[in-house]
Specification:
The protein has about 300 residues and is of the alpha+beta class. About 35% of the residues lie in helices and about 25% in strands. Strands 1, 2, 3, 4, 5, 6 and 11 form a seven-stranded mixed beta sheet that branches. A four-stranded antiparallel beta sheet has the order 8-9-7-10. Bound molecules: L-homoserine (HSE). The site of L-homoserine has 13 residues, from helix 5.
Length: about 300
C-alpha cells in the first residue's frame, strides 16, 4: 500500500499569474493499492467527488501508467482530504500529484520528480499549484515546450496564511474564461515588477512591503465580481493588520498573510466575515516547506 500526503497550495499570490505559488499546511492524504481488478474509490469529503474512471487521482495514475507502459490490474483509492474543493487552494493539483506519485511507485519508480512535474503541468495546464504541491515551499515556475523550470525555496516559518473560504465553488476553467485575451504593456510591466518584488521579499525574509508586492492588474479585477464584498474584505484585512491580501489561485478563496502572531488578526477577520452572513470559513495555516511525501508499506 502507498500512502501519499500532498499539501494545499495558494497560486498566483497576487501578481504572479500562472507562475508563483506556495504550499500550505493543509493536506490531502491518499492511501492507494493495486488490487486484482476493478476500481474502488472511497473519500471522506462531503463534496461530490467522482468515484468512477473520471476520478482525478485515478486518471492521473492511468496517465503515468501509459507513459511508462505499465499494465495495471485493479486500483483502490482511499482519499482523506482537508483541502476545500474548487476553492483556489490546489485541491485538484493535490489529486494529480498524489495519483502520479502513487502510480510511479507502483510501476517501479521509473520517472524522476522533474518528469512527474512535467506530466502534472500537462494535466493541470499551468505549473503554479502543482510545483509547490510536489516540492513544497514558495515556488517560481516557468513552462516552455512542455518542460517546467522552477525554483522551490524554503521560507522561514514565521508567516501565517489566513485562508478565507466562501461557501461556493469557482472552477478554474470558468474563472479563466472571464479574463481578457490581451493586456496592455503597462499592466504587464506592472505585474512583472510586483511578481519579481514578491519573490525577492519572500526569499530574503523582508516582509515589510509585501502589501505592494501582491498588487495585480491581470486577473483579480475581473474575478472579484464573483465575490460579494471583495474590496471591503481587502480593506478590512489591511485595517486589521494583514501584511498582504490576495485572491488565491483563480478564487474564490482570499488569503491574508500575517506575521507569526496572527491570532488577533484571525479573530477580528472571522468576526467580520461572520457579520457578512455568507458562511465564510477561516483557517490560519503555516507554510509547508516539505511538499508531497510518499511512504510505501
Ligand atoms: N493560475 C491559475 C489561474 C490558477 O489564475 O487561473 C492556478 O493554477
Amino acid at each position: 500500500m502507498i500512502k501519499v500526503r500532498v499539501p494545499a497550495t495558494s497560486a498566483n499570490m497576487g501578481a504572479g499569474f500562472d507562475s508563483l505559488g506556495i504550499a500550505l499546511g493543509l493536506y490531502n492524504t491518499l492511501k492507494i493499492s493495486e488490487t486484482e481488478k476493478g476500481l474502488t474509490v472511497y473519500n471522506n469529503s462531503s463534496d461530490f467527488i467522482p468515484t468512477g474512471e473520471n476520478n482525478l487521482v485515478y486518471k492521473s495514475m492511468c496517465r503515468l501508467f501509459d507513459e511508462v507502459g505499465y499494465q495495471k490490474k485493479g486500483i483502490k483509492i482511499v482519499q482523506n482530504s482537508e483541502i476545500p474543493i474548487t476553492r483556489g487552494l490546489g485541491s485538484s493539483s493535490a489529486c494529480v500529484i498524489g495519483g502520479l506519485l502513487a502510480a510511479n511507485a507502483i510501476s517501479g519508480r521509473q520517472l524522476s520528480y522533474k518528469e512527474i512535474l512535467d506530466i502534472a503541468v500537462s494535466i493541470e495546464g499551468h505549473p503554479d499549484n502543482v510545483t509547490p504541491a510536489l516540492f513544497g515551499g514558495f515556488c517560481v515556475s516557468a513552462t516552455e515546450n512542455g518542460h517546467t523550470v522552477f525554483l522551490s525555496s524554503k521560507i522561514e516559518p514565521n508567516l501565517r496564511f489566513v485562508i478565507m473560504v466562501p461557501n461556493f465553488y469557482v472552477s478554474t476553467k470558468n474563472s479563466r474564461g472571464i479574463l481578457p485575451e490581451m493586456v496592455t504593456l503597462k499592466d504587464a510591466s506592472y505585474n512583472i515588477s510586483r511578481a519579481a518584488l514578491l519573490t525577492s521579499l519572500l526569499i530574503s525574509g523582508k516582509y515589510e512591503d509585501l502589501r505592494f508586492a501582491v498588487e495585480d492588474r491581470l486577473h483579480q479585477k475581473y474575478r472579484k465580481n464573483n465575490i460579494d464584498n471583495f474590496d471591503e474584505i481587502f480593506e478590512k484585512s489591511y485595517e486589521y493588520g494583514a501584511k498582504a491580501t490576495y485572491l488565491s489561485g483563480s478564487g474564490p478563496t482570499i488569503v491574508s498573510v500575517t506575521d507569526s502572531d496572527g491570532s488577533s488578526f484571525y479573530r477580528k477577520m472571522c468576526q467580520y466575515l461572520d457579520g457578512l452572513g455568507a458562511d465564510w470559513k477561516c483557517r490560519m495555516l503555516t507554510i509547508d516547506n516539505v511538499g508531497a511525501i510518499l511512504k510505501e508499506f
